[in-house]
Amino acid sequence: MALTMQVEERTLFRRFDLNFALVVLALNLVGLINLYSATHGLQAVGLSRLFINQIMWLTIAWGVYITLTFIEYQILYRVAYLIYLINVVFLVLVALIGRVSYGARRWIDLGPIPYQPSETMKIALVIVLARYLAGKSKPEGLGVRDLLWPLTLLAIPFLLTARQPDLGTAIMQLAVVGTMLLFVRVRRRILVICALIVAVALPVAWSFGLKEYQKQRVLTFLEPGKDPRGAGYNSIQSKIAVGSGRFLGKGFRKGTQSQLEFLPERHTDFIFSVLSEEHGFVGSLTTVGLFCVLLLMGTGIASQARDKFGALLVVGILSYIFWHMFINVGMVTGILPIVGVPLPLLSYGGSGMLTTMVGLGIVSSVSFRKFLF
Amino acid sequence: MSDFLADPDEVKEYSPRFRLMYVVIVCAIAIFAVRLWYLQIVKGSELRLFSEKNRIKETEQPAPRGMILDRGGKILVDNRPGFIAKIVPQYVEDLDAIAKVLSEKLDIPAATIVQKVKSSRRKNGAYWPVKIKDALTMDEVARLEPLKIDYPGLDVEMAITRSYHMERNGSHLFGYVSEISEYELARVNRNRAAEDKLKQGDIVGKSGLEHVFDHELRGVKGLEFVQVDAHGRAAASQDTELLQGMPEFIEAEPGQNITLTIDADVQAAAYKSITENKRIGAVVAMSPKTGEVLAWLSAPSYDPNEFSQGISPKLWTELVNDPFQVLRNKVIQTHTPPGSTFKAIVALAALQERVVTPASTYHCPGFMQFGRRRYHCHLRQGHGAVNVYKALEQSCDVYFYRVGIALGIDRIAKYATMLGLGAKTGIGLPGEVPGLVPTTDWKKRALGEEWQPGENLSNAIGQGFMLASPIQLVQAFSIIGTEGKVHKPFVVKKIVGLDEKVVLQNEPQFVKQVADISPENFKIVKKGLQMVNNGERGTAKWWKIPGIEMAGKTGTVQLFSLSADQVFAKCDARPMRQRHHGWYVGYAPANDPEIAVAVLAEHACAGSSGGGPIARDVMQAYFQKFHPDWIKPEKGQAKAQPAKVEPELPAPAEGEE
Predict the structure, then answer these.
(1) To the nearest whole angstrom, how far is the Cα of A284 from the nearest Cα of chain B?
(2) How many whole angstroms separate alpha carbon A163 and alpha carbon A154?
């Protein structure tokens, strides 16, 4: 009996994907070091509190990560629609009684904790889609009828989020769902039709769908020098911050762009600029490299998943991380327009951090139960 | 538990897609690697420069302008600290709010402030500070200081204000300073090296010595480097590491100091006298043996301090439109007919050309008939038999009418030119006028007319076409006083730069000895001029310095052609603008002059009462300071002759046609 226990424990430890967890931890540490710098600037009086918050959130998040690792992920299969429904309810609640800040209704107060349902909705979408798509295996790809349900599942949160308004998060939901559908394959004809619809719909959306500030962002991206003190300011200051770091960076807490507040939103959306400025090419490439390792390891886990549901869960979560990172880093380095998308694991924010770690915990859980060859 | 027994090959179906995922991930990361390499390695240094520009703001520290000192080292012009309120548009969050609060505190219309800031922002860029108010009072500074926190972009800064210790006295010589205008800016910067270029808001000399020696006086601006945050506020850093790589403070280099030949006490006496006598016009005093200008005054005058503090448009309009030309430097910029003072020169010409001898006389019945016209003498009853001495002493017009006819204008002109009339003295201040010495040729050229014989008469008594400025007349009389020694007048003695380095040193410049006039003839004329102040019937006999003999000549300039009745009518009864100008030009001591003075008393009716007392006061101040032992108060008489007494017989109008 004692022997069995010992074997089981050893196995347990062996089956826990330690390497993956270490990469996540490494990114967490990079994030914390960087967040300390971003919140302890010269003038930042009210920001140092955020660092403590983040540590608290991170502790909780790791608890969730480890718990999820040991929970059988098949449970998610069963409760997928329940999770989805709860999130939709919260999104509706936000629309009704949400807290308004910066002209958008995105948060809801759960006791003292501000909660952003559109964030957790991304994971809920991954779970509910993984469940649906696991049963649809068609070599020729998904047809129109197969797409109706997943698109309906997407449409509800997408519209609710977009009208908050939070276009960035809505687009992220779309990107995650789209990636999963593409992964499972969609018929080529449908893809072509979609592309055509987008081509037609874009100008219409431009005229009627987008708010003035949203249009401004796109225009600014196309020509940032036009109004350097106005709309192009964020983009220009971010590029200056990144570039001025040069090879080795200006040093920890010595980034003048961030410390002197030339960088906007430096602890959230522009956290990567802070890192690039203070740690240079070496620091930023290392961080991007860690993301690369995380995504590649994740892909490895998905390919070894025990079942399609597990594989699709991982693919969905990886696409969540990939798109966030791609759009965020693309934005701060000036190759994409400014969209309010945080950088997973590095940006400040409880909901985002928890959502990401829940996702990674599920990946870890899938890894825990992968086939051992 | 059937799930655990799922088909191990279930996921195999996805394998090619996983391979695609690997490729996509690596490609995306590669894009970022390239982008980061481009920004941080290729563009790194350039963007580092941008980030430095972001945080390091240069603020110019104005250089204190050089001082202007009198010949004894007394400070006439220097600087005092002041405060200005300014707005840096780029840091302004709510312009209307700032304008509103400033208009309350400084009493400037809010709309004016908004308009000023907006137009500067458009023209000069957002970073350029806009001056809102100069010369703040301490009370205003105290009111604005606490506002700086709530209104980013608002600043109160130390500034240097030019300070003219003598206020209205000598303002035309010193000139004034104020902010450079856009028009000037373009003009001055055209041929300047980049580091020497002026900027908007720079203070420059606009007139007088401030203008002429602007470059010397201006100094070199200092640079202060401040680390600012994104809101444009100086970031006081406890974390000194963040201040690494800040350039050093570059201290401003004060301008060079200019020592003048002016004597503050003589200058003060001139101002005091012209003010107390309620005269306007010009006073210039010179040392005949060196050419050093001792006093320089133009009246009415303005206070250049008003300009340093930012002159109000109302005051400026007043100055520009003043009927008596407040802004004109009358010492060099005004020329009028020299009137009877010119008789000294005509006398020299007549003696040298042997038209008259000291012994020869003309009879003056009070007028002279020439052609169909009757030319009056200023003394209606006539002077009787007049020789050259009496003619100068009593300023007999008839004597000089006859001399003028005998000489002709061209011979008169020859001697006038010899004594420096008709040409600029080259004193080096802006706007000097050359005056005019007419000749027959000149009239033909300029007016296309033949010279009329009758014009010899009027020009011989310094009326007509003849024009001279105060500086020219003081030089001409200096030449007479020194019996032909010509010195170039100058006002700047030396310019001293940093570390007492002498940049410029002006020595007295002896130009020449007037060879064409014999010393004997100079002596004869000098004797006549001595009698003007000392003779029993001298036209300036009321003006004396006990112990020191003055010599000189009075003159009265008729501004309008008047009928005979009007000529003798009381000048004082006319409106100010129609009254005659008075001249007194003279020197002392009479035999060996130390100081020469020219006084143009505009609209004073007569030269003796208008210019005489002022010249006397200037000379007296000079001797009290430099030769007090020469002055011997004559008992009883000193008291019987108070300085400011009106002559018992006001010198009558002299000149007329």
Answers:
(1) 8
(2) 14
